[in-house]
Amino acid sequence: MKLKWSVYIVLLYAAVLPAQQLKVLTASIEPLEFSKQGEKEFNDNWKAYEAISEKMQNGIDYDDLSIQDKEALDKVSEVHSDYWQVGTDGCSWYCGASVAQVAASSYLSSQGNTTYSPKNAHDFDYKSAWVEGVSGYGIGEYITYSFPQENPRITTISIVNGYVKSEKAWRANSRVKKIKMYLDDEPYAILMMEDKRAAHHFTVPPIGNGDRHNYDELSKLPDWTLKFEILEVYPGEKYEDTVISEIYFDGIDVHCFAAGTKITMADTTKKNIEELRIGDEILSYNTSTTTYSTSVIKELANPVHDQLITITFDDQSHITCTTDHPLLTSKGSWVSYHPAKTMRDYDYDTVELLEVGTILLGENQSKRITSIAKDINEQLTYTIVELDNGTNFIANGIIVGTEPIRAVTYCKHHPLEIKELD
Question: Do residues 189 and 303 both lie within one domain?
């Protein structure tokens, strides 16, 4: 690593467009505290969780577990399986989004088995990091993320500043104080970073394509980019190297239903989708046996959307959902308003176009679509992401699919090849 010349030197980068002409964004702060002891406790708890889960799979009911076993289960989140993991194993904005490429102006050469390449800043691992590779503090160096045009929009940019894997590493290396952010190479904002071992969450107006109806045409266009340039740093106590552990994103436009959608429970009663909880039992349809069975909710999600459709049926009932949500027809085929996106993002090999006249399979009777209306008003939406068995549920009396994610996304849970430029 490069030894620092002085802990008192703060270098500023003379940008072409003065910083004061750009909007300045501050972040909400999420403190991060990682330690060897914390990692040991996490791993011990996870091993206990796996052992207890095996007992339950072998027929032991939860009520028959010991108090110690129940306490052990309470210490573990089944969707957070790694101590260094950013986010969870569950569904997120990345379930419908991807990063096409991560590149940087420079990066430090590997030291032994430890690498510092740009892909480390988007591997969803707090233990790795991108480190710029030029002499000095890296003022003017940058990292760039490229996104497909058909991607859902971004509303949150999260930056994990410094080498957060340990307090010692965080203090030894330099951290970013100011970042200049570019959208398609045009200056967008100055991001103000606090000198804290933390994730910085910046809220932005939706970035990306709001009108993403023609996915085939959008997919032919060049990727759009976000670039993050180092403007000013907090000098490290030992090294000049400036470190960013992670940059990741959240946003809107992923699958879901509007609030008030009625979900059929296992006892055939109805509950609003926004009132569902993990562990609730709902009714699911087996397409092979054409029978209904009980399924337990394992995961829920509720992102914001402003591109929904309201489908009206011949019995005057209706349902409001996102354009990519798969619905089951009376013939047993899957349809959506945007089948190309459904097949791209979710594990459905064949999805047909949903249109007026399509007959959907209903809980009690089939329903013919009489109209489809677009709704551009922004609203909080809801969906069932995963069931313990089955891949569908009943919403407003029709059979709708969950979204098993096609393996094209970002990490060991949703793998994606991330390219890297020198």
Answer: no
134 and 165 share one domain: yes
Do the domain assignments include residue 409?
Answer: no
Nearest Cα neighbor of 185 from 156, 148, 226 is: 226
Could you read off the pLDDT of 247-259 as tens digits, one per residue? 999 887 665 777 8
- Structurally, the chain folds into a number of domains equal to 3
- pTM here? 0.64
- The DSSP code sequence of 39-55 is HHHHHHHHHHHHHHHHH
Q: What letters, b where the CB count within 10 A reaches 16 and e where it falls short, cover 91-130? A: bbbbbbbbbbbbbbbbbbeeeeeebbbbbbbbbbbbbbbb
Residue 53 belongs to what domain range? 38-74
Crossing angle for the helix pair 67-74 and 36-57, to the nearest 10 degrees = 120
Most confident of 44-48, 264-268, 308-312: 264-268
Tens-digit pLDDT profile for residues 358-367:
999 988 889 9
Question: What are the Cα distances from residue 30, in Å, to 66, 98, 394?
Answer: 35, 24, 37
Spatial separation of the C-alpha atoms in residues 249 and 226, rounded to whole Å: 11
CA separation, residue 313 to residues 226, 284, 317, 358 (Å): 43, 21, 6, 10
Alpha-carbon torsion (140, 143, 146, 147), positive or negative: negative
Judge if 108 and 172 occupy the same domain. Answer: yes
